[in-house]
Amino acid sequence: MPKYWMISNRLFRQGQPTHELGKLSYWITDDDHADTIDKWTSVSGAVFETQLKQAAQAFPLVSQATAAAFAAASGQPAEAMPILNQLAAHQEQKHVGFFVHGYNNGFTDAAQRYQQLTRDIYAGPDGLGLCISFDWPSLGSILGYLPDREHAQACASDFTDILGRLHDWLLLKQKAAQEDPADACRAKISIIAHSMGNFLLHRAMGAGWKRQNQPLSVSLVNQLLMVAADVDNDLFEPDGQDSTDGTAVANITYRVTAMYTGRDTVLGASSGLKHFGTRRLGRSGLALSPPTDSVSGRVDNVWDVDCSTFFPVQYDNIPFINGIPIHGAYFITPEVVSLMKEILKGTDRSVLQSRGLLTGKAWPV
Fold first, then answer.
1. H-type alpha helices, 258-333
2. How many CB atoms lie within 10 A of CB 342?
3. How far apart are CA 173 and CA 164, in angstroms?
4. pLDDT tier at 249 (50, 70, 90 boundaries)?
5. DSSP labels, 45-70
6. Rg (alpha carbons) of the chain, rounded to whole number
7. How far is CA 280 from CA 172, 198, 199, 236, in A?
8. Comparing 219 with 299, which gets the higher pLDDT?
9. Any idea where the domains of the chain sit in the sequence?
10. Dist CA 31 CA 102 (whole Å)
11. Per CATH, which fold does 4-58+93-354 belong to?
């Protein structure tokens, strides 16, 4: 199967990507340095979908045998550890992941970040599976925060279509598994969204939630990582400006993790430009943790992680990102990348805490 996958709604002019919105296009490559479009091969949507289904079907089928083997390795009978067996099976299942890049990322930056994430988290024998880049045309101007927010919303409808097709596919696999367990879905969906890519994502999920006449009949996304999210931090509160989208995200997703730091000066600037009474999720964390819900009183599948202690004061060997490093430093800090992988695998929050994976040692010094 291809190493790298991309769905883009950039407009390509004379074969080159622009910052303008165009039609959906589909791309694959095996090149490990595909930061220019000429390294990618354009394919039709039908071919892309067929190859993706074939790749997912090639993943190992996580069965009760897998769980039983895990229990045996633990030295106890499988029937004595039913919950642990289920946990083992869940964490062994491969992923079809998506990466949604953020604000001020041209094609080259987005492609480089996507390929690096694929190599660090999804690829290889110990990797989670495969990852697809959703490449949207961020305007990429320091003074363009508000226009780019509107532009991200315009780009969201295409991702809604993609999520809708995934939902339909999962329904078909669910039905097929009832008839033949060997035909069960062999992958779960995960998403990593960065910066303003989270605004695009929650708009897309909100629209999809409405389109499927809420609620959805399956949990579409298993794990969602909202990294340095440039969205309101009361997104998941019932009285938030975007609370309908927040409800959609929480209901469509098994677990939502927001990674943030108060040291992010990029989101400090964003908050100044967009401050309509609330802070940025990627800078301040959740308004309430856990969030509240008008019906149940709490939303226990949404949580946040303060990553401030993972980032050192000096970045002698880490390249600056638009002059301000921390906003993108999550992806180039090994301890944070390892934490991302554990969260995506489905490792429980209490386990992450007990293993000391939620706190870094780089800051304060």
1. 265-274, 281-284, 326-329
2. 17
3. 14
4. very high
5. HHHHHHHHHHHHHTS----HHHHHHH
6. 20
7. 38, 11, 11, 13
8. 299
9. 4-58+93-354
10. 23
11. Rossmann fold (3.40.50)
